[in-house]
Design a protein that fits this description.
Mean pLDDT: 77
Number of strands: 0
Helix content: 25-40%
Structural class: mainly alpha
Distance between the termini: 33 Å
Largest sheet: none
Shape: flat
Number of helices: 2
Strand content: under 5%
């Protein structure tokens, strides 16, 4: 790991996503499908893994802010 190059993440590590403030998303199946596809993408793009992990925590009750 000493010879690895750092890569920017599309999300700030200290970002907090609200779990209760916001309007419920109209189509939760679309969110679940999109998050599933993004989880598959993390096999080849580990730089998006943190952002996908954070969003996948809200798949059960998605809001517009997510």
């Amino acid at each position: 790991m000493a010879a690895c190059s750092p890569v920017c993440s599309p999300m700030q590590p200290a970002s907090k996503l609200p779990s209760t403030s916001g309007v419920p998303f109209n189509d939760p199946i679309l969110i679940r499908s999109t998050v599933g596809a993004l989880k598959y993408l993390t096999f080849t793009r580990p730089d998006v893994a943190y952002a996908v992990n954070k969003v996948s925590q809200f798949v059960n009750c998605p809001l517009d802010v997510h």
